[in-house]
Specification:
mainly alpha, 0% strand
Length: 315
């Protein structure tokens, strides 16, 4: 946007005043920073140094704007600085949003990992319990086998000792032997059932463990895909933003050119109106005073007669 010479000079004077005030403020800040020497005032010193840097940056931008106003009578540099600051803010906001999303995703992944770890620990405890039960069953089976051997030995001894006894005692012993065999069969059957139950539980736990592992892998893959899609959307949005800025600059340039052409046309029309007014005024003066081609015929005759009379007098 172009300004007139007077407007640019006024703005340049205001900017010179602002730059002088910023120089004074920067000088006072440097003096205060030199005075702050204690360790307790480190935060105040950092704040003052930041203020001084900001004053220097603003004074540089004011100097650039002052030069542009003096040379080109425009303030495109200020608009460019504002656009750059807006772009920085937008990029920082986008970075913060992306960082926040990543932190949320990390937290969800950590929670899922903790849940998976708890479940794996639970499965490990169940596996250890199954192991202990299996060990107990093995001990019981070994005890039952030892007991069976002891009973068989005792029976054999009793049979050897009671060969001379009566048939009644033999029948009783045979009944006892049958009962003991039935008990042994029942115990072996219970042992086999418990063993099969523990094996089934072990297989189910292994299947659950495999399913949880597959689910965690699938969830991690989905998270990676979502993250990649977010990155792609971010790049697409940045490309759209740059394209829109480029179009805005082109449209602004077209508007500026159109305004310049309209201003030039307005000046030409004003000059033409002024010229027509001046011509009309001059024509009116010529008509009122009867000068040039607007003389009346009576005035022409009087002028001729006066000339003839003057010629006669001269003779």
């Amino acid at each position: 946007m172009s300004l007139s010479r007077i407007q640019s000079l006024r703005l340049a004077a205001v900017l010179e005043d602002c730059s002088d005030q910023l120089d004074i403020l920067g000088h006072t800040l440097t003096v205060q920073i030199r005075r702050e020497q204690d360790t307790a005032a480190a935060q105040e010193k950092a704040r003052l140094t930041k203020l001084r840097r900001d004053c220097q940056y603003i004074s540089q931008q004011i100097f650039k704007l002052h030069l542009e106003l003096e040379e080109k009578q425009s303030f495109h540099s200020l608009q460019q600085v504002v656009e750059e600051e807006e772009q920085k803010k937008m990029t920082e906001n986008m970075k913060r949003e992306a960082k926040r999303e990543l932190e949320q995703r990390k937290q969800t992944v950590q929670r899922q990992q903790e849940e998976f770890q708890q479940k794996t620990e639970k499965l490990a405890d169940m596996y250890m319990l199954a192991k202990d039960l299996k060990f107990q069953l093995n001990e019981q089976s070994s005890k039952i086998a030892n007991k069976k051997k002891i009973v068989e030995k005792n029976i054999e001894l009793q049979l050897q000792q009671t060969q001379k006894e009566t048939s009644q005692t033999e029948k009783l012993l045979e009944d006892q032997l049958e009962l003991m065999q039935k008990q042994l069969k029942e115990e072996t059957r219970i042992h086999e059932k418990s063993k099969a139950f523990l094996q089934n539980q072990h297989e189910e736990l292994q299947q659950q463990l495999q399913q949880w592992q597959q689910r965690t892998k699938q969830m991690l893959q989905e998270m990676e895909q979502q993250l990649n899609s977010v990155r792609c959307k971010r790049t697409v949005n940045l490309d759209r933003l740059t394209e829109m800025r480029r179009k805005f600059r082109e449209m602004e340039q077209v508007v500026m050119e159109d305004r310049a052409e309209q201003e030039k046309l307005r000046q030409q029309q004003a000059e033409a109106r002024a010229a027509t007014k001046l011509q009309a005024w001059w024509r009116g003066c010529m008509v009122r005073r009867g000068l040039g081609s607007f003389k009346k015929p009576e005035d022409v005759k009087k002028g001729k007669k006066k000339k003839e009379g003057k010629k006669k007098k001269k003779k």
